[in-house]
Amino acid sequence: MISYKQWSMYMSFEPLPSDFYGFENSLSTQEKDLILRLREYLETEVRPLVNDHWARAAFPMQVVKGLADLGLYGMPWKETQPFANSAVFRGWIALEIARVDASIATLVGMQNGLVMGSIGVGGSPEQRAEWLPKLASGELLGCFGLTEPLSGSDSAQGLTTIARREGDHWVLNGAKRWIGNGTIADIAIIWAKSAEDGQVKGFIVPTSTPGFSATKIENKQALRIVQNADIVLTDVIVAEENRLQLANSFRETAAVLRLTRAEVAWAAVGNSMGAYEAAVSYSKERIQFGKQIGAHQLVQDLLVKSLGNITSSIGVVTRVSQMLDEGVQRDEHASLAKAFTTSRMRETVAWSREVFGGNGIVLDNDVIRHFADAEAIYSYEGTREMNTLIVGRTITGKAAFV
């Protein structure tokens, strides 16, 4: 059930209680209106589902269309953009979803950022016109195939999936791992190394193509709602018209990751907020030593440290997204945001779980879900170590990757 206080949040726009400095007030009226509608959808349609689906490692397919109906998948692209909006606003979308559930935020990030981003960055005008509207409407669900069993951080050089040109089509052979949506997607964006020139190229591959198989990764203990898969490509034939026409090297792949890495940083902040807000609520309900635990100094210390992490992280992600809008964001800017916010997230979810004591490991209280999901967010789309090396190279002028 939703309290009157929660419903009042939808009647008029108010920054989240964990947005202590009111950063969200900088959004436009139209952006705030969509945030309000998103909050209502998340509280009424998503929050009641997530703990059960997380426990079962199941995916609620109905949210794909629900999020599409809000216009969330088409935000950055002129072919599908519902209204003029900022990168800061798109970051707040990721944050708002992740504070309810990081798996659902990952779904939006994959569909809107990695999949549509690959077509938006690497696709021809004809490919953009054909595929982006279908993805924006939720008619098609996509997945993004870059990481491989033996290639993660070294994807720029270490891809072993090979694409061979044969006349008017390509033949793909290889394997991918940790592919979100892999078992439920209609199309996959597959990045493969060309046998002809050794350059990384992108392909739009319907998952019904003969030779394409996806197997769910079992026993995953973070982002359990996300359907991660091992993908095997065995003589998969892809028409030349489904090769991303403007993606002819890893530079284009990196451009897609640059667009989405900052939004992962926003999701990290949202996941921190979800854990913190759960802890604040619990601190006002739990009675020990004759009073609410929120009246004890040590609990207040945990909450204040958590809020400080959240507030500083919002400042970082706000500025890095403003830089994207200004056209001055570089790889190292997005990398610092991702490394910093995910590190602060790890601290925050641990402190928030600590407020609950033993009750913090019970899924019904939400905080353990945010705690576990933080471990996946900390690692995907660039580990802290890799992002640190990207920033370190800029600081010192020396590459220290090997």
Automatic annotation (TrEMBL):
PROSITE patterns, per the entry: ACYL_COA_DH_2
Keyword DNA-binding attached: no
UniProt cross-references to SUPFAM superfamilies, sorted A to Z: Acyl-CoA dehydrogenase C-terminal domain-like (SSF47203), Acyl-CoA dehydrogenase NM domain-like (SSF56645)
Requisite cofactors: FAD
Domain (Acyl-CoA dehydrogenase/oxidase N-terminal) ranges: 31-139
Molecular function (Gene Ontology), one example: acyl-CoA dehydrogenase activity
Residues covered by the Acyl-CoA dehydrogenase/oxidase C-terminal domain: 256-395
Domain Acyl-CoA oxidase/dehydrogenase middle intervals: 143-236
Keyword Transcription in record: no
Taxonomy, superkingdom: Bacteria
UniProt keyword terms in alphabetical order: FAD, Flavoprotein, Oxidoreductase
Gene Ontology biological process: fatty acid beta-oxidation
InterPro entries (alphabetical): ACX4-like, Acyl-CoA_DH_CS, Acyl-CoA_Oxase/DH_mid-dom, Acyl-CoA_Oxase/DH_mid-dom_sf, AcylCo_DH-like_C, AcylCo_DH/oxidase_C, AcylCoA_DH/ox_N, AcylCoA_DH/ox_N_sf
The family this protein is said to belong to: Belongs to the acyl-CoA dehydrogenase family.
UniProt name for this protein: Glutaryl-CoA dehydrogenase
Organism of this sequence: Glaciihabitans tibetensis
